[in-house]
């Protein structure tokens, strides 16, 4: 169940193996946390996952197979860092090379990479110092390493930007696991050659839509799964639409934080339940402002910015279409900032974001032709984004049995169960491949009916 990248991949693999499959999706569209929309201005906006990087091989392969072209993220020109006290510093390249706290920040990120290289991605609990690191929050670890306030601010923004959480909330071991899973700090943070390298011209859900077409009537939209009952021989899945599906196996691909919305009979094993209770969703809003043209490019600005202090926005990118027929800025609001900002009235939220964009590229940013917010913690069946993160102690108490081991006839997929590119679209795809292998192995050889 779930027609995000994990569910669609699982279904396709099983269908290809000759196994009957049905995908029950709560929403009225496929793609899950990847959702693109063409606006009245003619621009296609990606409200959720959007970037694809060169080492995300499974996503790359599917995009190529379904003929979904990609184009490089716009990063030409001067980027800007706006500090808590309002001072500005322009820079080019991946990250600022000088500024308050930079040397200490770089020392610590190198240390994070060194520690991440020790992580066992298939059996994380076998990692040296596993329990010691999992007992700490990222904040606790970072504060034992440094008291440099500027470096800590930079690291906090990095945690917000990657996990949409605050350093006090997330297990330090989870930080290391995730860095290892994506190939290191630079891979996660940077643009060219890294996770933010490129976008898909037809939207990041173009591949999901193509997968869905290939699965046809096997996909049933508007079918929220409310309960899953296991018998000795079957799984009975009940939806809010009144559908009951009897199957030999079920694969649940909803984010861990959404698992508790489903009633399980018998109840989930304690390890699985413990795991999902230690895995809250990150909190993020993605806000797009559309302009007649990307006017900041004429001024030599890239549109890329990092913002500190009380501002709601943490990071800005130029999200214009490849042909630059319109100018688009995307602003990310994360963690505690999204909690505060989302509670404000509509007009105030809009004013706060446009004020930040004006600080980045000038006053023209205050008058977009279109403005749209996607506040993920308020988004129907998904609850948040980008993904679930583990709170301190979660891996130690429940990882071995609760992370992705099947619960009887119920198998688990979704990006949170991936070893490689955990949290990303690529990880969702690999999780679906693994779950399909588990199910196919459990069912044994399939006898194909003639005709
Ligand atoms: C704002 C944002 C930005 C991101 N940026 C990037 C990026 O640039 N690059 C990248 O690789 N990744 C990015 N991600 C992460 C990426 O989108 C996810 O890792 C990926 O889409 C997860 O896929 P999934 O199939 O595991 O889960 P989902 O996409 O969440 O799919 C789960 C599906 O289950 C459905 N569902 C939930 N409950 C039920 C129920 N009870 N019954 C039936 N169906 C149910 C949901 O509606 C959903 O369709 C981003 C995510 C967000 C939110």
Automatic annotation (TrEMBL):
Pfam families on file: Amino_oxidase
Annotated InterPro entries = Amino_oxidase, FAD/NAD-bd_sf, Flavin_amine_oxidase, Flavin_MAO
Q: Which UniProt keywords apply?
A: Oxidoreductase
Q: Which SUPFAM superfamilies match?
A: FAD-linked reductases, C-terminal domain, FAD/NAD(P)-binding domain
Family indicated by similarity: Belongs to the flavin monoamine oxidase family.
Domain (Amine oxidase) spans: 6-439
What stretch or stretches form a coiled coil here?
none
Determine the domain of life of the protein's source. Bacteria
Question: Can you tell me which residues bind substrate?
Answer: 332
- Key word Hydrolase present: no
Q: Check the record and name the PANTHER family matching this protein.
A: AMINE OXIDASE (PTHR43563), AMINE OXIDASE [FLAVIN-CONTAINING] B (PTHR43563:SF1)
Q: What is this protein called?
A: Monoamine oxidase
List the molecular function annotations (GO) for this entry. oxidoreductase activity
Which cofactors? FAD
Q: Which residues bind FAD?
A: 25-26, 225, 416
